[in-house]
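thread: overnight batch results

M.L. [08:02]
morning all. the overnight job finished for the chain we discussed friday. pasting input first so we're all looking at the same thing
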Amino acid sequence: MDYAGRVPAPPLDRYIDDIYCLSGVPRHRRLNVPPMPSAHLFVNLAGPVAVHDPGGAGPPAVFSDGWFMGLCTRRVVIEYPPVVRLVGAHFTPWGLSSFVGLPASALTDRWVPVDALWGGALDGIRDRLDGTTSSGALRVLEDELRSRLRPGRPGGLELVHRTAGVLAASWGGISVAALAGGAGVSGNHLAARFKDHVGVTPKRMARIYRFARLILSVDTRRDVGLAELAHAVGYVDQSHLSNEFKAFTGLTPTAYLELRRRFPAERGFPPDQGPMPAE
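M.L. [08:03]
and the structure it wrote out:
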């Protein structure tokens, strides 16, 4: 499967980490996607994509056109069609609410059809994307997102942008008290603003950043000492790491290492940075 992606031009780069196009035959039809510090827009131009909630009792959601996915605090399983053509955006943790006119908490751990939030616009977007090259598709999506940006949404976005940046830079290694104190606000005030613009509290966001650091830094080609790794990325001990890993991926660290050694992540292929094959 081919990947083309880039960071959008200002002012979108403040809200979106990258826009991208996936096309071709996927290496793995089913992906186990753990919580990562981003929200998503997917515009589907191929066969239906199924999104499973492994912890839920209901059937998977099936999308033939497009959907938003808010920040996730638990894993999801995405099942691709045999051939993929998907154009999407990875929003910063605080970015999505400025495009959909809703508090981010309304989309946490949810996937919602694009038309439910953009009022029937998706057919027109897909028509403009149809038949374009990957670079052309990125231009179409960037133009659409620029037209949808509403940065004036009230309620402390600037505060969240600054403090979430501190969380990201420390990979969740700063306490909420220190984060709030550095911003000159109370912990409760900061938590309320995070719920509005990120969808979760700073404490939950710090857990996701710490896990992201773990999964992005581990080199599965080498022997991995879990106790040393736990200390390096900020977990209390190996047991803490193991419990968090199982909660976020459904796998033990040992099972994950075995999986990744059988199916190594492709270097320079961002869709492999975090998501893993689901067996």
